[in-house]
Amino acid sequence: MITRQALKQLQFLSNVPALSILLPTHRTSPDNKQDPIRVKNLVDEATKRLATEFTNRELEPLLKRLETLVSEIDYRHTLDGLALYISHDFAKLYYLPFPVPERVVIDQTFATRDLVYGTHRALRYWVLLLSQASTRLLAGTGETLEEVHDENFPMQMTGPGATAPLPSDADSSYRDDRHRRFFQHVDTLLKLYQNPNESLPLVVGGVDRQISFFQEVSQDTQGMSTTGYTYAGSLSGNFDKATIHELTPQVWTIMQSVREAQQADALQALDDAMGTQSVVSTIGETWRLAHEGRGKLLLVEKNYHVPAILTEDGRFELVDQPGGTEVMDDAVDEIIEVVLAKGGNIAIVDDEALSIHQRIALVLRY
Q1: What is the three-state SS of 180-206?
Q2: Domain 124-256 maps to which CATH number in 3.40.50.720, 3.30.43.10, 3.30.420.60, 3.40.80.10?
Q3: Does CATH place domain 278-364 in 3.30.1330.30?
Q4: Could you report the per-residue pLDDT of 3-24, keeping only the tens digit for each?
Q5: pLDDT above 90 as % of the chain
Q6: pLDDT at 299 over 90
């Protein structure tokens, strides 16, 4: 999953040249057969453009990184978009669960705006599959699941009752305590994936006893997750060998209910705020008050995009179409960024849900 934290890290990287290659891709055949050709054409374009600005000696390590990164693309498992970021000391590719415009960007920093826009619009969440043999963590973006493979996950319980026999005098309480300690360690590591500015839904899977142990060690006295995640639901069973394809429909059924509940809560908060006249509903007023830090909750219809400019005297004005360095391609996403940066929350709702509010509404703190 492309987390906001990962995006922030990308945005802070600065190295000349910083090469970004982005393109829409396809999930299924025969459409995905054109993806390698499009990547090759963009790599050729990038190579030619770099050659006009830098010497062969300067480019050699970067082009080697680019060649290696391209060779790692698994075209059988592409999603809706692909992003490659390469500099002399950095190379990373992302499979994106949303489309991005085709482009090659050579700059001092990486081109991340399209990724930021995509993550704003998609429901994001985590799936934790508990098992003493293989506890797995999956990142969800919309209907796309991606398994985390790093120094922490998948995680195996070790020691007595797992990789070693239980002591001869051990009883069931000893075994249960071993499991509690293991799942407490899982809970501790899960905190490392938490963004302090947002609380993402968490689906927990496993046999019922393991789920019970995990919930016991990961809740405070109010029943909230100590990791900072919001429990969205649970899946009962053994998922040690479950594939992404098998898991996706089960998880998405839960997340659709979560999305509906989140929208209902957001619309109710909007109705309540209207009663106290603490709402603005035009994009211009939303822009102004969001920048003043007054946004508590921003509601936006999921397909609402609009270009705009800031005039020389600082006024916000809509324009007919994007284009040009002075035009914000999507002022709505700029507002989302500002509200998040100033500690507000975002609710993406269905189209037509905000028809009386001109498709956007900001609930104010004061």
Answers
A1: HHHHHHHHHHHHHHCCCCCCCEEEEEE
A2: 3.30.420.60
A3: yes
A4: 666 787 888 888 889 999 999 9
A5: 62
A6: yes
